[in-house]
């Protein structure tokens, strides 16, 4: 689901300072309607903090650049570009200079993805998968929490064959981080995903389940 979208027009001297959006949802989006290639203004890029800024002292190496380009990513607001990102990352908009007309401004639709929930495709119904799906989710959340305290969203897709066995598990998206901004180890996460032992009912054909798991740290 998404929030009610906002339409924003950035004319001369408009900008957005660095900020984070918590707890609006697990992902923010910016959809650009800006005629970027024929624009008559300067600025207007979406600014996003790089990991080097979020983990400044732990990642700082002798001789590293500490200019803005090394700390912030600048994303042009090109027409028809959809930018999706973790809203906990500091982000903003570089000041626009050189345009007064709304029609020629930096024009974007923006908002948040909210309330992630499971989706189901295939032979099995929600009624039949509810109990094993809850057991699988509890196994993963308890296992990840045992590695280290994390927060963020982990989205998984389970492919269940017709015998009820989990055929494969794909990580569709993950922005889990611990208090120091580090990601959980991939081998540790893979081991947890493959060790659930959860089975599903038999069916006439395969079923695919997408499970979003929200961790609060």
Topology of this structure?
Layout: E1 6-10, E2 16-19, E3 27-32, E4 46-49, H1 51-54, H2 56-59, H3 68-71, E5 72-75, E6 82-85, E7 91-93, E8 106-113, E9 119-122, H4 126-147, E10 151-160, E11 166-174, H5 186-194, E12 207-216
Antiparallel strand pairs: 1-8, 2-7, 3-6, 3-8, 4-5, 4-7, 9-12, 10-11, 10-12
Helix pairs in contact: 4-5
Report on the architecture of this protein.
The chain is of the alpha+beta class and 217 residues long. It folds into 2 domains: 6-113, q2cbj1_9rhob like domain (Jelly Rolls), CATH 2.60.120.620; 119-216, TolA/TonB C-terminal domain (2-Layer Sandwich). The protein has helices spanning 51-54, 56-59, 68-71, 126-147, 186-194, and strands at residues 6-10, 16-19, 27-32, 46-49, 72-75, 82-85, 91-93, 106-113, 119-122, 151-160, 166-174, 207-216. The longest helix has 22 residues, at 126-147. The two termini are 23 Å apart. 21% of the residues are buried.
